[in-house]
Specification:
single chain, 60s Ribosomal Protein L30, Chain: A, 3 helices, 5 strands, 24% helix, RutC-like_sf, Enamine deaminase RidA, house cleaning of reactive enamine intermediates, YjgF/YER057c/UK114 family
């Protein structure tokens, strides 16, 4: 896990990662580099790639958890309509066949100047790791957890 990913909680007033039993809750994944700098202001694709690399570092830090154990994520982004296709394409590349639950929220003013994406996610270590490791090697054996539900809470 990078120093930026596990940055000092006192700097923000909250913990970025909390493990509760076999559940890991990760908040505030932003495209900081290893030095804690923000190298890609305004560049959605570069920030998304960097943020996902940090997600992989978190998974590795917790005993080699895999992308298939990510059960949900919340993506906060500037320019949802403008960046939706790039975000979807990135999801397919990152998750393969696995489909964790997701919410995408449009935001107008993130905390870091030039920031256009932030991701929070939850990992359930009780789930099979599947074949896709954080390094992207292997096959993806994971599938979404449970039946799909519409926004009304009913199966579509």
């Amino acid at each position: 896990m990078s120093s930026a990913t596990a940055s000092r909680p006192s700097d923000f007033g909250y913990a970025r990662v909390i493990r509760s039993g076999e559940l890991i809750h990760v908040f505030g994944q932003v495209a900081f580099d290893e030095a804690g700098e923000f190298p890609h202001p305004g560049d959605f694709a570069a920030q998304l790639e960097r943020t996902r690399a940090d997600m992989d570092r978190v998974l590795d830090h917790y005993g080699g958890a895999t992308r298939d154990q990510i059960v949900s994520r919340t993506v906060y982004m500037v320019g949802v309509r403008r960046n939706a296709a790039a975000a979807s394409e990135g999801d397919l590349k990152y998750f393969g066949d696995h489909r964790p639950a997701a919410t995408v929220l449009g935001v107008t003013e993130p905390a870091v100047p030039g920031q256009v994406v932030e991701i929070a996610f939850a990992v359930d270590l009780r789930l099979p790791a599947g074949g896709r490791r954080a390094d992207g090697h292997g096959t993806t054996g994971g599938r979404g957890v449970g039946p799909a539900l519409s926004s009304a809470g009913r199966p579509p």
